[in-house]
Amino acid sequence: SLADVVYLNRLDRVPVYRDSGGTNFADLTNWDANWRTASLRSFGDFLLGLNMTEGSTNYPNRVRWSNIVTANTIPDSWDATDTTKSAGFNDLVQMQTEIVDGQPLGSNFIIYSQSEVFLMEFVGGTFIFNFRPLFSDAGLINQNCAVEVEGKHFCFGNRDIYVHDGTSKQSICDERVKNFIY
C-alpha cells in the first residue's frame, strides 16, 4: 500500500489498485499495458517495480520507480523520459542473479537477488536514488522472505537464514539447523 491506496501484483498481468473509497480493484493506470513486474513495492513516496519485463524483453535486474505519489492517488507517471517528473529506472548491471524482492529498511530500500543484496537510498536531485552493493554472498530464497524487526531485516536466503542492519550481517542458525533446512 502507498498513500491510502492498496496494490496487488501478479507476474502475468498489469498490477491492480483500489483507492481508500473504492470497492473494486482496477488496472493500474499510467502503467504501460505491456509491462510486468516480479515485485511491486512502496518506498517513501514512490512505487517500485522490481525485475521488469517490458514488452517481450525481460530486465531481471531493473528497478523502475514511479513519479512521486501524493495522498489518496496513484502514480501519475512511470515515464523515465519525462524530465518534468521524478519517474525513472536503473539497471543493476553488477548484479549477477535476478532480483527476487525488496523491502524498506529504515530510510533505505534493500533489493535482494538470489545471491546478492543491494542498497537503494533516496538522494534527491537529478539522480533521485543511489544504488550500491551490500553483500555478495547472501540473497533471498523467494518473495516475502525478508521482514523488518527493530531496524533489522531477518532474511531467509538460499544458503542461510540471517539478519542484517544494512551494514553488517550475521547468521542466525547453526550448522545443524542449516543442514536440516537446506
What keyword list fits this structure?
4-stranded antiparallel beta sheet; 47% strand; 182 residues; 1 helix; mainly beta; 15 strands
Detailed description of the structure:
The model has no long low-confidence stretch (mean pLDDT 96). The protein has one helix at 175-181, and strands spanning 5-8, 16-19, 26-27, 35-43, 46-54, 57-65, 88-91, 99-105, 108-113, 117-124, 128-135, 146-149, 152-156, 161-164, 169-171. The radius of gyration is 17 Å and the shape is globular. The strands form 4 sheets. Strands 4-5-6-7 form a 4-stranded antiparallel β-sheet, with no helix packed on it. The protein is mainly β and 182 residues long. The two termini are 33 Å apart. A hairpin with a 4-residue loop joins strand 14 and strand 15 (169-171).
> Could you give the order of strands across the largest sheet?
4-5-6-7
How far from one another are the termini?
33 Å
Briefly note the structural class of the backbone: mainly beta
Oligomer: single chain
Instruction: Give the radius of gyration.
Output: 17 Å
Share of β-strand residues: over 45%
Mean pLDDT: 96
Strand element count: 15
Unreliable stretches (pLDDT < 50, length at least 5) are none
Helices, by number, come to 1
- Helical content class: under 10%
Globally, the shape reads globular
Largest sheet: 4 strands, antiparallel
SSE string: EEEEEEEEEEEEEEEH
